[in-house]
Specification:
The protein is mainly α. Helices cover about 65% and strands about 0% of the residues. The chain has one domain (about 1-65). The N and C termini lie far apart (about 45 Å). This is Integrase.
Amino acid sequence: MRFVDAREAAAAKAKADGKAALAARIKQFQFRDVRPKAASELDDIKQASKLLGHTEEEITKKVYRRVGEKVNPTR
């Protein structure tokens, strides 16, 4: 599987660069983490639902969207 190969290559590079903690985090990343990330990156919920193949936006909102409140910096 290409995802597994890419994940292992990224972890090996991080480890070779002396970033053991990052390598460990990369190894924990799973393919199923991609869908919520994709849904959360789009501002338009309709586009996110369409991307994931949902017929109802509510499924996308409840299950896949992981977007916090946008705030302005204090300074």
